[in-house]
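Hi V.,

Quick status before I head out on leave. The structure for the redesign project is tokenized and pasted below; the design run finished overnight.
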């Protein structure tokens, strides 16, 4: 991915180098100290980003065999896999969920159900453990053994029940999709209903009538919106307003930890505030991704406060300068700056939808899918938006071109809805949406074409 902003390009480089340094024979969190272990939480959060950067199928499929072999009798998992001499045998929300998240995201990225078939029994066993932990009220305040709260947040704690219940709902959603993919329709139906029921329970327990999420933490709002946990559509706008108000208290600087950070910018996009997502992404002062770069970072840090503004170092007993967890923001960057995401597993049907913002004048993204190269390159200058896309063979893509009307969009110099291989679908969120098949297309939008 490339942009017109050098800091963002450096951030992508930092994310990539962190992954290269930490993906050895196991997905370690750091090669720099005595934690050269396969921490489950880091890769659970980072897997969607990792799948943009390299083909993870062989690596993560092999590691998931170790995960299955490390699973406890009750279905739970240790915090690290493999587990050295029984250490870190306990885990917690966001960590043990790797049993579901990694197979799910590998399948979504590559469309290969083998990793689902290999792990389905263990995934079901883990989900049963979570279901038993939650109880009849569908709220899940437990699973607090090793990791509690939003790990390494900055003085902005989150209600434990929010974390557990949010993951419970998402686990059920992912399991429904997995069961569908494997032809297990009875289980898929059960998981779908359960996921919807958990979301209603979450809303009733943790979301007030004025939109306040219990505890008023950045992570609480990010999870509620980013995971689509607000069951009442009338409440979503109110929750969004409270989220923005919470961020304003820190001048739109983050306070989230490992669990909340991946959802922070997606939650803002969900409520139509990409402007604030870019604002948070592009900060260069403490605490932010840009702050690490300003301090000379060439890989991701373990902590936002690994180096303080006065030059003092964070806690020396746990302060790595080569972690990848906070690099999970790369998923949002690839989907919104690069504009690339999968509608169907394996990019059989893809979405190409760049979102200009943050004073960016150009951006691009490329991805080697299992079908071939998928790419976008866009510019935005003087009121004219251009977008060149390449779509792999035997696939289709929905291309979103920012425009007021369909007539304002051309492809190859002719009205887009009359161009060969291009079909207008709809107007959506300030963009004209077209379906295209394999090939290369040149879109432009400005004044209306007749």
């Amino acid at each position: 991915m490339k942009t017109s902003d050098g800091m963002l390009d450096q951030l992508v480089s930092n994310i990539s180098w962190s992954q290269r340094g930490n993906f050895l024979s196991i997905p370690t969190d750091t090669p720099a100290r005595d934690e050269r272990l396969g921490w489950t939480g880091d890769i659970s959060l980072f897997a969607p980003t990792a799948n943009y950067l390299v083909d993870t199928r062989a690596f993560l499929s092999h590691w998931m065999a170790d995960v299955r072999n490390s699973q406890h009798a009750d279905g739970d998992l240790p915090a690290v896999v493999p587990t050295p001499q029984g250490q870190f045998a306990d885990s917690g929300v966001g960590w043990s969920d790797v049993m579901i998240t990694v197979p799910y995201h590998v399948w979504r990225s590559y469309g290969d159900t083998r990793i689902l078939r290999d792990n389905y029994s263990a995934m079901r066993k883990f989900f049963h453990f979570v279901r038993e932990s939650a109880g009849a009220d569908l709220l899940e305040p437990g699973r607090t053994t090793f990791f509690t709260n939003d790990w390494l947040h900055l003085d902005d704690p989150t209600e434990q029940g929010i974390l557990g219940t949010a993951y419970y709902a998402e686990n059920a959603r992912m399991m429904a999709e997995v069961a569908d993919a494997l032809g297990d329709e009875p289980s898929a139906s059960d998981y779908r209903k359960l996921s919807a029921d958990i979301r209603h329970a979450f809303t009733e327990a943790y979301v007030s009538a004025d939109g306040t999420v219990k505890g008023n933490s950045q992570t609480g709002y990010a999870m509620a919106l980013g995971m689509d946990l607000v069951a009442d559509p009338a409440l979503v706008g109110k929750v969004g307003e409270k989220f923005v108000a919470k961020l304003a208290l820190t001048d739109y600087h983050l306070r989230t930890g490992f669990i909340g950070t991946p959802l922070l910018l997606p939650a803002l996009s969900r409520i139509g505030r990409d402007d604030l997502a870019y604002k948070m992404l592009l900060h260069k002062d403490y605490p932010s991704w840009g702050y690490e770069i300003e301090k000379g970072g060439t890989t991701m840090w373990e902590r936002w406060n690994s180096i303080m503004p006065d030059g003092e170092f964070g806690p020396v007993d746990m302060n790595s300068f080569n972690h990848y967890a906070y690099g999970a923001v790369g998923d949002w960057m690839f989907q919104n700056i690069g504009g690339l995401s999968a509608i169907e597993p394996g990019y059989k049907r893809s979405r190409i939808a760049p979102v200009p913002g943050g004073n960016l004048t150009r951006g691009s993204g490329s991805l080697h899918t299992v079908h071939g190269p998928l790419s976008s390159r866009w510019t935005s200058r003087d009121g004219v938006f251009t977008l060149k896309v390449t779509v792999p063979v035997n696939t289709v893509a929905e291309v979103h071109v920012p425009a007021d009307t369909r007539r304002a969009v051309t492809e190859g110099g002719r009205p887009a809805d009359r161009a060969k291989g291009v079909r207008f679908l709809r107007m959506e969120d300030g963009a004209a949406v077209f379906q295209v098949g394999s090939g290369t297309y040149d879109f432009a939008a400005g004044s209306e074409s007749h």
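Above is the designed sequence. The two ends are 34 Å apart (CA to CA).

G. will cover questions while I'm gone.

Best,
W.
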